[in-house]
Write a structure and sequence with these properties.
Length: 331
């Protein structure tokens, strides 16, 4: 067994890449971000339209749709900034990148300029997520709340694990999947990439995703996004380790089924690949109290006004009528 050792300093802080109101990641109306499948972090409801660097580092990934960018810090942390929700569907409209992959940036440098009015009208939300995609490198997160000023306000402090982090080389069989077609309408962007990375973490094997002449560690959201995989692209999974067969079979099926993304039509599997039984979706929570309505908060604040609840009323209709006198009495 071969091990390499990575040592890290003890603390890192990020400054606001945008001015606005800080929102806990758990409150973001997107389950992949809210459940921290992409990573730990914080969200900002912006009031300006230029995304700036929250720290010094190097641009290691810029999404083709120009709505997301990743900076790698000197400590090795990968800081993903994702402008808005479902903005990948805008296909770059409304976004103007100010940097390229490989550029060195300083805190406060402009990264992406965006048309806030256009994005707000055409996307689900303007909430911008700042997450650490390799959160396993961090032992403690301290996200801040309240208002933030770009380049000045500290929005997130992190304590890095001072212990040595071994990376073990896997041994065992190497298994390669048959080509799998990616059915997602906008390809393997942040949301499906995060789902795939999360699914891969339960396996011990080293797992790679191959696309053309490139490959990426399946456990890294940034690496997966860096492959720039579009709809109908053909990819392959390569796994080495004791559970390689299971990992390749289950992850191939997950990709083929669209990784849970709405609006994705699953691609039929090759005859040689056995289908897995899909689990039934979890039932939506319901309140036993008729005066309580369960929901999801889209943003912080106070709601003022009347709330109405529409309920189905069962009406019993008697098919056989009575005598004319009886029917007239009922009227």
């Amino acid at each position: 067994m071969i091990s390499t050792v990575v040592k890290s300093p003890s603390a890192v802080s990020l400054k606001a890449p945008l001015s606005g109101y800080l929102v806990p990641l758990e409150s973001v109306p997107d389950p992949v971000f809210a459940q921290k499948m992409v990573g730990e972090g914080v969200s900002i409801d912006p009031v300006d339209c230029v995304l700036c660097a929250p720290c010094d580092g190097e641009v290691i990934q810029l999404h083709p749709a120009n709505h997301a960018v990743t900076i790698k810090t000197g400590h090795g942390l990968e800081v993903l900034m994702h402008i808005g929700l479902d903005t990948v569907a805008l296909k770059g409209q409304g976004f103007t990148p100010k940097v390229k992959v490989g550029n060195a940036v300083k805190t406060g440098d402009s990264l992406i300029e965006f048309d806030a009015d256009y994005v707000a009208l055409h996307a689900k939300s303007l909430l911008t997520q700042i997450v650490i995609t390799n959160s396993d490198r961090v032992s403690q997160f301290l996200p801040y709340t309240g208002t933030a000023i770009v380049g000045q306000t500290v929005i997130l402090e992190m304590a890095l694990d001072g212990s040595e982090l071994p990376t073990e080389a896997q041994t065992g069989d190497t298994v390669t999947s048959e080509p799998v077609v990616v059915p997602n309408p906008t390809g393997l962007h942040a949301r499906p990439a995060a789902v795939l990375a999360s699914l891969a973490k339960k396996y011990k094997s080293d797992i790679r995703l191959k696309y053309n002449d490139k490959q990426a560690n399946v456990r890294s959201v940034v690496s997966l996004m860096g492959l720039e995989i579009n709809k109908n692209a053909r990819v392959q999974l390569v796994a080495t380790g004791d559970d390689a067969n299971t990992a390749v079979a289950e992850l191939s099926e997950a990709i083929r089924m669209g990784l849970g993304e709405e609006g994705t039509a699953p691609i039929s599997a090759p005859a040689s690949v056995a289908h897995l039984t899909a689990a039934e979706p979890a039932p939506r929570p319901r309140s036993a109290d008729p005066n309580i309505i369960l929901g999801v908060a889209a943003s912080p604040g106070v709601a003022v006004g009347k709330t109405y609840r529409l309920s189905r009323q069962e009406i019993t209709v008697t098919e056989a009528g009575g005598t004319p006198r009886e029917e007239q009495r009922k009227l």
